[in-house]
Every structure is written in C-alpha cells, then in structure tokens.
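Still learning. Any example?
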Amino acid sequence: MKLIAQLKLQPAAEQHALLKHTLAAANAACNLVSEMAWQQRVFGQFALHNLCYRHVRQAFDLGADVAVRVFAKVALARSI
C-alpha cells in the first residue's frame, strides 16, 4: 500500500527567494545540459552525468541531488 500526502509549502520570504533561485538555476542547468547533449550526441542520463556533472555543479552552484535530477530531466525530455 502506498500512502500519499499532499502538502502546501508556505515558506518565509527568504526561503521563497532561495527556492526560486534554486529552481531558476536548475532550469538554466537543464538548458545547458540539453545544448551539450545535442553537441556531443549524448542523451542517456548516466552519459550526461559523466559528461557534465562537474561543470554543472560549479557553474550553477547546485547541490549534488539537484544536479543529478537535472540530468534525469534532460534525458527524459529527449526520450519522449
């Protein structure tokens, strides 16, 4: 049995700004990774990870978990 809880985030103003910044950085990282994927003709999640991980972490100051999700998002978008 899978339990699902629906939550509504109610961040403070500072938290809202940080969350918005993180989402904007992640979207910009997705655009960069997508561009690199087309240039290198590499579209798999793990191949993108190996190609772009260090660059994405440094250029966008993203955490490891967010960076990994960026590669998954780009790989999924390319597979559709």
Q: What stands out?
A: The CA atoms of residues 30 and 70 lie 6 Å apart. The chain has one domain: 15-79. Residues 15-79 form one domain. Helices lie at 13-40, 45-60, 64-79.
